[in-house]
Write a structure and sequence with these properties.
The chain is α+β, with helices and mostly antiparallel strands. It folds into two domains: 65 residues, no CATH class; 64 residues, Nucleic acid-binding proteins (OB fold (Dihydrolipoamide Acetyltransferase, E2P)), CATH 2.40.50. Strands 1-4-5-3-2 form a five-stranded mixed β-sheet, with no helix packed on it. Helix 2 packs antiparallel against helix 3. The longest helix is centred in the middle third of the chain and has 21 residues. InterPro entries: NfeD-like_C. Pfam families: NfeD (PF01957). This is NfeD-like family protein 1.
């Protein structure tokens, strides 16, 4: 009986560590350790408890990997992701363009370097920010 409480105590400790890490993998390991505790309650010998804990933890981690929670997120280019950079999708007014397709424009109280996205016409007017690379804004015409 004491051995079972040791297993459950370790499982609880792993759950606390899981709360600090933010992934589900330690939770799956804690499930395996708890299964080792159940095996101890059922009076299995020491090596069998370890085998049960290892198998349950391994299967739980494998199932987690195959679920949507265990899949790796696709890295998104932060320069064009509106969820990462709140400037993307905002509008600004460009007074005049230089012949090389670049300009300076006021945006958020400061002057920024502005460049046209490929295929855009350098006319004065309102533009929407499509990308931000360093201190340069890449813009396209506002769709009417």
């Amino acid at each position: 009986m004491e051995q079972a409480w040791l297993w459950f105590g370790v499982a609880g400790l792993i759950v606390v560590l899981e709360l600090a890490s933010g992934t589900f993998y330690l939770l799956m390991v804690a499930l395996g350790v708890a299964a080792g505790g159940v095996a101890a309650l059922l009076r299995a010998d020491g090596p069998l408890q370890w085998v049960v804990a290892a198998i349950v933890a391994g299967v739980a981690v494998w199932l987690l990997r195959r679920s949507r929670f265990g899949r790796r997120r696709i890295k998104v280019d932060a320069s064009a992701d509106p969820n990462t950079n709140l400037d993307i999708g905002q509008r600004l007014h460009v007074e005049a363009w230089r012949p090389d397709g670049q300009a300076r424009a006021m945006y958020r109280g400061a002057e920024w370097d502005v460049e046209l996205m490929p295929g855009e016409v350098p006319d004065a007017g309102w533009f929407v920010i499509r990308e931000v690379r360093g201190s340069r804004l890449y813009v396209a015409h506002v769709a009417a």
